[in-house]
């Protein structure tokens, strides 16, 4: 039996939304860890729940990745490059 | 036919690692977008490839999420809380 596709829009039911948040957050952190390990990537992931609770993951440290990112962004701006490569 | 499980360790073959990086990065960004939309979460995701290329996603702006996170971290440190909740 195939799983049903769900629509990607905000879940109205608060309880269902919190359950989905817990499950998918866990999945997202796992995928981030796997990507960093398999492909030697450096990752920082920051998640705030709808209630403002903070969850974070980094393959090294969030601070370090953010600083590296800011440095690169500044350089790119200085070189007048239109934008970073933004997937999705 | 079930998919084979893979071992989570660095992929030795460079080409295979790059292919896996592209595919899994795409998947990770998609999952981050879905989590933010479904559950009204605020997310920043920063990924550096092994070659130092930057990819990023945010439901709002990376800068905004990072600043919110830094503010909260500072407050937590000031209150002498041992650590944030770190899933995985």
Automatic annotation (TrEMBL), chains A, B:
Residues 1-61 form the MADS-box domain. Transmembrane segments: none annotated. PROSITE patterns: MADS_BOX_1, MADS_BOX_2. One of its GO terms (molecular function) is protein dimerization activity. GO terms for cellular component: nucleus. Keywords: Differentiation, DNA-binding, Nucleus, Transcription, Transcription regulation. CDD domains: MADS_MEF2_like (cd00265). It is found in: Nucleus. One of its GO terms (biological process) is cell differentiation. SMART domains: MADS (SM00432). InterPro entries: MADS-box/MEF2_TF (IPR050142), MEF2-like_N (IPR033896), TF_MADSbox (IPR002100), TF_MADSbox_sf (IPR036879). This is MADS-box protein SVP isoform X2.
